[in-house]
Amino acid sequence: MKILVPVKRVVDYNVKVRVKADGSGVELANVKMSMNPFDEIAVEEALRLKEAGKATEIIVVSIGPKQSTETIRTGLAMGADRGILVQTDDIVEPLAVAKVLKGIVEEEEPGLVILGKQAIDDDCNQTGQMLAALLGWAQGTFASKVDLGDSTVDVTREIDGGLQTVKLNMPAIVTTDLRLNEPRYASLPNIMKAKKKPIAEKTLADFGVEATPRLKVLKTAEPASRQAGVKVASVDELVSKLKNEAGVL
Ligand code: AMP
């Protein structure tokens, strides 16, 4: 069984994101980019299934600019077998990404597609669900445990106030939550090996998809900055301030 893992190139989660002066978006020039953290978890889960003898091949796919090759190489260095880059310099919204992924699924016929639950740049949390709808496949979103059977997969989902386990007929879509696993670091020998693994190059047109946006970003703004705190000399002073100034006691 093949597993397809879509991986997105996003601003590294350690970077303090800055809004462009004209409010049209966030600054991307000279900013460190990395694989979306939820996608690292997706690659890790696929690798564990392969190591357990339940999958035969892991394909990582990224839709984005040429530099997304680096993101694919990261997945290959972790242990995935081959990559597909669907190159575009346009901003591709989740529906267009899902349509491209549908095309790849039809060519590759994987038993599972494991995606991140959301990309940390757009926070859409849409692509996996849209892909499931386009394919008519079952979906297990926000997975914190994946248990693969012969023709079904049990997905434990993180829901409000607890966990829910659902059984999906395969082929199926799974999206990863934070607690599913802890992704491995790529070792130096594996980083070297990854350089020789194949990456096929495609375009949106190969899948008959156009990137024409359906949304227009009207404004992007920084969060309001916090006001400075006050140091108090004693508990009595704190209580008095809470009572008389903040009015919370
Ligand atoms: P989103 O719906 O944008 O929050 O993204 C959810 C997941 O879809 C991500 O964690 C990725 O697994 C996948 N995804 C979204 N955009 C892309 C992309 N451009 N290339 C590859 N995978 C993507």
From TrEMBL:
Keyword Transport annotated: yes
Known cofactor(s): AMP
A Pfam family this chain is assigned to: ETF
Record GO biological process: carboxylic acid catabolic process
Keywords: Electron transport, Transport
Coiled-coil residues: none
SMART domains xref list: ETF
GO molecular function: electron transfer activity
Residue intervals of the Electron transfer flavoprotein alpha/beta-subunit N-terminal domain: 23-211
Gene3D superfamilies per UniProt: HUPs
Assembly and oligomerization: Heterodimer of an alpha and a beta subunit.
Function: The electron transfer flavoprotein serves as a specific electron acceptor for other dehydrogenases. It transfers the electrons to the main respiratory chain via ETF-ubiquinone oxidoreductase (ETF dehydrogenase).
Entry-linked PANTHER family: ELECTRON TRANSFER FLAVOPROTEIN BETA-SUBUNIT, ELECTRON TRANSFER FLAVOPROTEIN SUBUNIT BETA
Family: Belongs to the ETF beta-subunit/FixA family.
Protein name: Electron transfer flavoprotein subunit beta
Gene name of this polypeptide: etfB
